[in-house]
UniProtKB/TrEMBL annotation:
<feature type="region of interest" description="Disordered">
    <location>
        <begin position="1"/>
        <end position="27"/>
    </location>
</feature>
<dbReference type="InterPro" id="IPR051594">
    <property type="entry name" value="KRIT1/FRMD8"/>
</dbReference>
<dbReference type="InterPro" id="IPR014352">
    <property type="entry name" value="FERM/acyl-CoA-bd_prot_sf"/>
</dbReference>
<protein>
    <recommendedName>
        <fullName>FERM domain-containing protein 8</fullName>
    </recommendedName>
</protein>
<dbReference type="InterPro" id="IPR019748">
    <property type="entry name" value="FERM_central"/>
</dbReference>
<dbReference type="Pfam" id="PF00373">
    <property type="entry name" value="FERM_M"/>
</dbReference>
<feature type="domain" description="FERM">
    <location>
        <begin position="1"/>
        <end position="155"/>
    </location>
</feature>
<dbReference type="InterPro" id="IPR035963">
    <property type="entry name" value="FERM_2"/>
</dbReference>
<dbReference type="InterPro" id="IPR000299">
    <property type="entry name" value="FERM_domain"/>
</dbReference>
Amino acid sequence: MDGTEGSAGQPGPAERSHRSSVSSVGARADDTVVPLAVENLPSLSAHELHRAVREVLQLPDIALDVFALWLVSPLLDEPFLQFRRNVFFPKRRELQIHDEEVLRLLYEEAKGNVLAARYPCDVEDCEALGALVCRVQLGPYQPGRPAACDLREKL
């Protein structure tokens, strides 16, 4: 999330210290920016910011444990916050999640990490993950449709 202020009516210094807006880069494949309007950003706790992101994304309370705020910067000069998977969230609990939006966010983040080679995979895992991507993007298998050449174009 970057601390940017609205350009309409440029607030004065006193107002600027009490009102800020932030944007969140989500775990979506296209790194969607989610705008948030928050009051008194300098005194906002991480927990309150996390709650605000969850509310904007309309996620259930389980998202409090599943996702965390990550401070990310390639050069440590312009860091931004990302709403990503909490690495301390146990896999056994992740398997119990049924909320479609939470699962979609986890899927998109994992897919991006595999494609960016952040998650090492052997050939068997790659084949299984490729099958999952086909199922998600193309729907259930139907004999004779789509043809193999159609699959190559989409993948």
